[in-house]
Amino acid sequence: MSKISSLKARKILDSRGEWTVEVTATAETGETAVFSEPRGKSRGKYEEVSVSTDTAVENIEQVIASAIKGFEVEEQVKIDERLLELDGTETKSALGENAILGASLACARLASVVKKVPLWQHLNELSGLDRPSIKPRLFINIINGGLHAGGNLDFQEYLIIPRADRFMEAVENGINFYRALREYLVKIIGGRASLLGDEGGFAPDFKNNAEPFEVFQKIVYELSLQDKIDFGLDAAASNVRMNNNELTAFYKELYEKHNLWYLEDPFAEDDFDSFAGLLKEWNKGGLIAGDDLTVTNIKRIKQAAEKKSINAVIIKPNQIGTLTETLGAAREARQLGWKVIVSHRSGETNDDFISDLAYGIGADGLKLGAPARGERVAKYNRLLAIEAEE
Ligand code: PGA
Ligand code: ZN
């Protein structure tokens, strides 16, 4: 194997034109690997603490680099333990989650380069998880609202979720739907309908919060894709000004009239009980997922399990900070029998680590935005490349 010889960090731009961290890890045998970080906007309040990009860069170069120099590249658990020890706080507030994440994931990618295996294979080995023959489903955020767009929708993400054996088929159906949706919206709303939100979905004004699903149903029939596409909503309810009765009535309407199959963060991030109440009624095959509720943190995942709040969980490495903790959260969720959905953030770079992560750990899904905007498309193209090499 080979040892880590250096870590370099610098600031680069993300898809919103804001600063984020890029880390380059080098091995003593000369190989290098680069990882760049995503940044959320509707961040959960229980996510680990980030510091400014300048401070994160400084912490990586002046504190972390010398501390992990000399570690074997493939010893991810030891590297991550050292990072946690260096930080020494419960919430990573000393060095910053963003300083720790960059170091952790750049080292993981470097190990795959040194081992000369695809990143997904290295991640699979680290995770100890089985990869089922069924591939992760694509969770395509095709209409953007809430904090991610300037339209009038209260809810953040309206998703289509193709059902397909191959990524190629899922992508084909996804892009056909996306194109038909644009044509339809431009016809009924006008040219402004094709303006995009942060994750590449359309973001016009609608008559009400349910109308996007009426449109989805029309299009799915038009394209004869009824058996091939499910619908989902990420309510991101911590940012929605509605009470729980109003929210519940809305979800029931979507469930009964519009075949809603996937629902993420239906209530505020502290409200484990309301999640549980809804799941009891909902549990006929559909998914209720925690994102801000669980923040890829094993303690909060266990709390949600005790309360029976959810049957699916979002996994985002930058909510928790290290790869080892991310994989631990995914393993715990799998043991609980939940569906595991790896996710991008609303602020992204062209980095495609999450595509390898989803495939490598045999996740049930990957949330990756609409098939538009380079930073979203990078994730789709990586999945297609992985499939082409199978
Ligand atoms: P964020 O939103 O990346 O802005 O936090 C994504 C999500 O809530 O799923
Ligand atoms: Zn979410």
Word description of this protein:
- By secondary structure, the protein is an alpha/beta fold.
- Helix content is 43%, strand content 17%.
- It has helices at 53-68, 76-87, 97-115, 119-127, 167-189, 211-222, 244-258, 272-282, 298-306, 317-320, 323-335, 353-360, 374-388; strands at residues 4-13, 19-27, 32-36, 137-144, 157-162, 229-234, 260-264, 287-290, 312-315, 339-343, 365-367.
- The strands form two sheets. Strands 4-5-6-7-8-9-10-11 form an eight-stranded mixed barrel, surrounded by six helices.
- Helix 4 (119-127) packs across helix 12 (353-360) and helix 12 packs across helix 13 (374-388).
- The model has no long low-confidence stretch (mean pLDDT 97).
- Residues 234, 236, 264-265, 291, 314 line the site of zinc ion.
Query: N- to C-terminal separation?
Result: 26 Å
Count of distinct strands: 11
Please identify the top-level CATH class of the largest domain: Alpha Beta
- Poorly predicted parts: none
Q: Specify the CATH homologous superfamily of the largest domain.
A: Enolase-like C-terminal domain
CATH topology of the largest domain: TIM Barrel
Ligands, deduplicated: 2-phosphoglycolic acid, zinc ion
Task: Find the structural class using helix and strand composition.
Answer: alpha/beta
Strand percent estimate: 15-25%
Largest sheet: 8 strands, mixed, barrel
The mean pLDDT is 97
Strand order of the largest sheet: 4-5-6-7-8-9-10-11
What series of H and E elements makes up the topology? Answer: EEEHHHHEEHHEHEHEHEHHEHEH
Number of H- or I-type helical stretches:
13
Q: What is the helical fraction, as a range of percent? A: 40-55%
What is the gyration radius calculated from CA atoms?
20 Å
Overall tally of domains = 2
Principal-axis shape equals: globular
CATH architecture of the largest domain: Alpha-Beta Barrel
InterPro entries: Enolase, Enolase-like_C_sf, Enolase-like_N, Enolase_C, Enolase_CS, Enolase_N
Function: Catalyzes the reversible conversion of 2-phosphoglycerate (2-PG) into phosphoenolpyruvate (PEP). It is essential for the degradation of carbohydrates via glycolysis.
Family: Belongs to the enolase family.
Enzyme class: lyase
